[in-house]
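Let's do one together. I've listed all components of the complex below, 226 residues spread over two lines.
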Amino acid sequence: ETGVTQTPRHLVMGMTNKKSLKCEQHLGHNAMYWYKQSAKKPLELMFVYNFKEQTENNSVPSRFSPECPNSSHLFLHLHTLQPEDSALYLCASSQGTDPYNEQFFGPGTRLTVL
Amino acid sequence: GNSVTQMEGPVTLSEEAFLTINCTYTATGYPSLFWYVQYPGEGLQLLLKATKADDKGSNKGFEATYRKETTSFHLEKGSVQVSDSAVYFCALSDNAGNMLTFGGGTRLMVKP
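Okay, and this is what the predicted structure of the assembly comes out as:
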């Protein structure tokens, strides 16, 4: 595997379900990000981790819970979501959180909440 | 706060046509500017960037010039191909260490 991988690629869940999204980067980076991409809205940064420490939480509801066990893996735990949470969730990584450093994105998980 | 405004799509062109996708921004100080591209079913990829006024970023035949006086970073390509069909995102990062701010994206469709 190379680059940034995300699983699953597609997920359908009910509002009472609990699920997790997984991201793995094979680039040796130390910063990882979760973004939300909704139709007709700008890409929204959700969380940033640098060396496994959360450095940014962009006012995300608590029904989204990130976890970063090491610099290569990032999870997004989901529970009691709402239909408006349906979106493409993108993971990215970079070498440090300097904004000038290129972020490498995974293909995303397409989430549908029923 | 920072913001990025892009022209709404979709933009539909015939192959070999000239492309312009407009991007303007609002930011404190002197931001760095980026264009990212998202091909169908894939994540975003950095296409080009410029870090100071009058810089020109270029890659794969695409160009964009950092215009501080008009706060713009328009993307251009002289002759588009069907393979350029994708969604293009303009983004900025300011010099206060803040994360990337993205525009809403512009879908480009190139017909043979």
